[in-house]
Amino acid sequence: MFQLFLNSLVLLSLNVNHQLSTNPSTIPVEVIKKGQIIAQNSEKDEQFNQLKQELEKAGFEVILALPPKRGAYGLLQVSTKKIWINPVVFELNIALPTLIHESVHASQVCAGNGEIQVLGLTLKPMNQARPFFQGYTDTHRRDLEREAYTVQTQPNSFELALSLLRENCKLN
Fold first, then answer.
1. Domain boundaries, the chain
2. What does the longest C-alpha to C-alpha distance in the chain come to?
3. Cβ(151)–Cβ(163) under 8 Å?
């Protein structure tokens, strides 16, 4: 069963890579919907679009394409304020958590006035999230990722991410 799942992911990845290689430009959400890559419910789609719009208001460019770092679901490039979201996250049904994670990093950039810094959140991460950030040997990077994974795994993650973005990027 696991091998079948793994094979499906490889095929999906190859299909996404093929689509991107034939048209490497940014893929808008509407095109992804027509290509049936989005597999989320409408509430999550609305939340994804709202968070994407808030990120854009804050001066970040959200790019729905393969990130420059191989294997990443999402990536924020601090120097250019570009956020890549790998199209495969729509099929995996993790698009919103991925964007939430990257929006926390965007909040960290805003809080640091262009340099990424820890927000100093007092939330505790879920035990299941710990392996995702504890492997970083650089303590600054580990703290940044701890905050992003902690927010991403909260029951109110969308509202929390939106609030952090609005507060730290001085929106509204």
1. 2-168
2. 48
3. no
Helix 157-168 × helix 42-57 angle, to 10°: 10
Q: What is the reported pTM?
A: 0.77
Q: How far apart are CA 122 and CA 130, in angstroms?
A: 15
The helix (H) or strand (E) run that includes residue 77 is strand 74-77
Q: How far apart, in Å, are the Cα atoms of 127 and each of 124, 147, 150, 172? A: 9, 13, 10, 34
Place of tokens 């950030």: 133
Is the pLDDT at 7 greater than 60? The verdict is no
Q: CA nearest 88: which of 68, 73, 103, 70?
A: 73
What is the pLDDT averaged over residues 101-124? 96
Amino acid at 43: E
Q: Are 64 and 26 in contact (CB under 8 A)?
A: yes
Q: How far, rounded to the nearest angstrom, does the alpha carbon of residue 127 sit from its chain's CA centroid?
A: 20
